[in-house]
Amino acid sequence: PGLNYELWADKFAKKGFVITDALRRHAGDYVIWLDADVVSFAAISLKFLKEIIRYDDPRVFCAHLRRFGMHTESGFLAFNTKHFLCRDFVDRYESLYLSGGVFHLDGWTDCHVFDCVKALNVSEGAAAAYFEIPSLGNRHVFVNSPLGLLMDHLKGNRKDQGQTRIDDYVI
Known about the structure:
- By secondary structure, this protein is α+β, with helices and mostly antiparallel strands.
- The protein has helices at 9-25, 46-52, 86-98, 110-123, 158-161, and strands at residues 30-34, 38-40, 62-65, 73-80, 130-133, 151-153.
């Protein structure tokens, strides 16, 4: 309480290493991450997921929610494990934590590390590999995206309330 969550490297590193471990080990085509505080209130069809993550577009390595002027929202991430960038992403991501490079970023969360690796990939010409799921607004992009039709991300004190606040919606 009262501490800046963006400096909780130990907490967010655990999440990051769970994701990279899954990316290394998973034999299927995709790894989809949902934070533990995401709840669904409707059936999530395979068709919906394939559309959201651009399954049929071989250029896309990762589908994610972007916040403008702030770090990525990482409560939903979808990775194509067969994409040529997958191994590079995992190696760079883990290296930022293991080398202490994370402490040179603006924040030390998994989101900041994700953004750093994405920026490196984009600077090397891989912008098309990252699909930003469309969203309205900037505060709570999860519920203001197509994901919000089926799920809610109960971030922060929303866990206690059991739902997203009305003022989080942009409509």
